[in-house]
Design a protein that fits this description.
Blueprint (H helix, E strand, L loop, with lengths): L3 H18 L10 E5 L5 H10 L4 E5 L1 H9 L5 E8 L3 E2 L2 H7 L5 E8 L2 E5 L10 E4 L1 H14 L4 E4 L3 H10 L5 E5 L2 H6 L2 E7 L6 E7 L10 E10 L3 H10 L4 E8 L6 E9 L5 H8 L5 E7 L3
Parallel strand pairs: 1-2, 1-3, 7-8, 7-9
Antiparallel strand pairs: 3-4, 3-11, 5-11, 6-9, 6-10, 12-14, 12-15, 13-14
């Protein structure tokens, strides 16, 4: 007699064969898409933009998504890595510390903020605004003009800010973040479209486990750790090899002040052309991923 997993496998195969024989739709399992939570944050909105509501979108803390990715308990992970206002986010260091990172996509998004509060709140009566520190930086010109005397308090994410407002009792506390938080937490928008513009762009990396194929319009992200005096020769060597450098980001190596980690983004895909040739002859340069270029 068949038992346990063998029986379950046989049942699954039988059901699949029946669906194909009678042209019934075959439903694929939902992908587990993790993002920096809780729900209602910009990473939640980015996940919805990219994958819709049909997948299993999971809001996690930094510690949770680090473990989930390393242990392969999720299919994809969205991480905000750069913004046009503050540059590199602290989450990029978390990505660099992950095991066997593979970037499979990038997603730049121009942000605009909503000021949200509990139903019944009035704009002129708000005395405190909760938001992520980057959000506070991005909406500062508007806040300085429209709400100069309001207290500004940092939150872990926009979702955490909205959640705190929703769970509180005061109508004098509001949060600043994406409009999606109004539906998640039953809040109302007191002002929308705040500071929308090209100066407020955040870029997410999407991490997965299998490299993407070349599309003809790709970007490759590389990582190299070296002493400061070796950085200029590295760049010269890249240019001599014909690589077109798009961006360079510097991070500390956590060991010395005269050595750093450099994230270098170049045009092209690691499986073809000059990027492939360069990587074959430079074992000290680590490939983080090649993916369709979005900007």
């Amino acid at each position: 007699m068949l038992k346990g997993t063998r029986l379950k496998a046989l049942i699954s195969i039988t059901l699949l064969a029946g669906c194909l024989m009678f042209n019934f739709p075959v439903f694929a399992a939902k992908e587990k898409i993790a993002y920096l939570g809780p729900p209602g944050a910009w990473s939640h909105q980015a996940s919805v933009d990219l994958y819709g509501h049909d997948q299993d979108l999971l809001g996690m803390s930094r510690e949770e998504w680090i473990a989930a990715y390393n242990e392969k308990r999720i299919d994809k992970l969205l991480v905000p890595v750069t913004t046009s206002v503050v540059g590199i986010t602290s989450y990029m260091d978390d990505v660099l510390a992950l095991k066997n990172v593979i970037i499979i996509a990038e997603y730049p998004k121009m942000l605009s903020y909503d000021l949200m509060a509990k139903p019944g709140a009035k704009f002129e009566e708000v005395k405190k605004v909760l938001a992520h520190p980057v959000a506070h930086a991005e909406v500062k010109p508007w806040m300085d003009k429209e709400m100069p005397n309001v207290q500004r308090v940092n939150a872990v994410t926009g979702g955490a800010a909205a959640k705190e407002v929703a769970e509180g009792k005061s109508l004098e506390v509001a949060s600043m973040g994406p409009k999606i938080a109004t539906t998640v937490y039953d809040l109302v928008s007191l002002k929308d479209g705040i500071e929308k513009g090209p100066h407020n762009v955040t870029r997410w990396w999407v991490l997965g486990y299998e490299s993407t194929k070349p599309t003809g319009h790709d970007k490759t992200t590389l990582l190299v750790e070296l002493k400061d005096e070796a950085f200029s020769p590295l760049l010269k060597g890249m240019l001599k090899s014909g690589l077109i450098i798009i961006d360079v980001y510097e991070r500390p190596n956590l060991e010395s002040i005269d050595g750093h980690k450099y994230i270098i983004e170049v045009e092209g895909h690691a499986q073809v052309g000059g990027v492939k040739t360069y990587l074959e002859t430079h074992n000290n340069v680590r490939l983080l991923g090649s993916y369709p270029r979005k900007y």
